[in-house]
Amino acid sequence: MFLHYLDLSWRSFKRTPLVSFLMVLAIAIGIGVTMTSLSVYHMMSADPIPEKSSSLYSVQLQTMDEGRTWWTVDNMPLQLTYQDAVNLNKAKAGGKRVTMVRTGFSVYLDSDKVKPFIGQARLTTPDFFDMFNLSFIYGGVWTEQQEADAAPVVVINKDLNDKLFAGQNPVGKMVYLDDASYEVIGVIDDWDITTKYYDLNNGAFNKTEQLFLPFSLMKARELENWGNTNGWKHEKTNTFNDKLNSEMVWLQFWVELKTPAEKQAYQDFLMAYMQEQQKLGRFNREKLTATLRDVNEWMQYNNVVSEDNEILVGLSFMFLAVCLANILGLLLAKFLRRAPEVGVRRALGASKRLIFFQHIVEVAMLGFLGGIFGIILAQIGLLGVRHSYSYYKSLATMDLSMLLSAPVIAITTCIIAGLYPAWLVCKTNPAIYLKSQ
């Protein structure tokens, strides 16, 4: 019976090609606009590391004196001071730990084949690669001893390796960063994350870094950070050591805690650490506060998906509703025009339920076709977004869930729009049309 109704629906489309085309076009435009904004919103809010997001925690410490406030909702600084980040990294508490900061260099080789360019870099500790699930194509990460010695080594990403070494194994070769040479010890594979959750200071959707170096190089070579540096009191920072010893916050610190018990133990450790620092004259507050937020909590806390994005999605669904209102009018005209035919079928024994189901199948078929064409329009819209905003390149895409959602949304909304016309036509009184015949 269902296949028979599909055949009737197709015959109905061919009898009224213009009206059917207008309805499919209206659905396609509505779905195209909706799926464009919904796909971007979906990618923005997606869990960037679902296999570990609940066990990776960003650490915040309330370092300010009593009475001082921050611009966050709970007045907590977003980053850590150098001394706190180093102290926490050296401590044996918790699982894997990462201290890091963004920087950059002028990158070049001892060759005229590659022109010098600016490379984005991250100074970090060795656990970074394992904690955030990075895989190596060649070589590996530096050792704890190399970290302690501030060894001039570097890990590069696949794109940079293709640019500098034509994709060949570069382990052991030298690359120049600013005025110093560094030995390449590893190459990481493509790191496809939509949100740069581990450092949201310089754009949540910016590209990940090309170079990764030991964090200890920062102090050894007085490397400047390329991220946000914030302070809450007046301090003289005439020298690099002054900055390291100051209360300015500019470093990110993450810890891996796999169980609630580990999280609670680390929370207790942080409070004990702050109490110890308080005895040294720091953290002059009546109530000490330390916060652990996992990946998704951290993204929400930093408003990665802004209210503007949510409003845009809401507006796109309102546009879809306008398209469906137009479809409702066309469906009423089309179905009621068919009343004499329905009256004869009712007289021959067709029930209201079968008549209703036949028309619902027809509007569902309209929705399916509109959803398919809507996907095409959404892809065009997403292409325009990628060309207009380069940092949306990894976001303005449709994953499998969005591809499947488009026809589902189209069919569902069309069925909702078709309920009233289908109900109205199935109430046709056959006696009226039999007399007229």
Task: Write a short abstract of this structure.
With 437 residues, the chain is of the alpha+beta class. It is 50% helix and 14% strand.
What does this structure look like?
This protein has 437 residues and is α+β, with helices and mostly antiparallel strands. The chain is built from 15 helices and ten strands. It has a six-stranded mixed beta barrel with strand order 2-3-8-5-7-6. Strand 6 and strand 7 form a beta hairpin. Helix 1 packs across helix 13, helix 12 (339-347) crosses helix 15 (430-436) and helix 13 (352-388) packs antiparallel against helix 14. It is elongated and about 95 Å long. The model has no long low-confidence stretch (mean pLDDT 89).
List keywords for this structure.
437 residues; six-stranded mixed beta barrel; 10 strands
Q: What value does the average pLDDT take?
A: 89
Strand order, main sheet: write it out: 2-3-8-5-7-6
* Discrete helix count: 15
Instruction: Report strand %.
Output: 5-15%
The helix/strand class is alpha+beta
Q: Give the uncertain stretches in residue-range form.
A: none
Oligomer status: single chain
Radius of gyration: 31 Å
Say how many strands there are: 10
> What does the largest sheet look like?
6 strands, mixed, barrel
Shape: elongated
Q: Fraction of residues in helices?
A: 40-55%
Gap between N and C termini: 28 Å
- Give the H and E element order: HHEHEEHEHEHEEEHHEHEHHHHHH
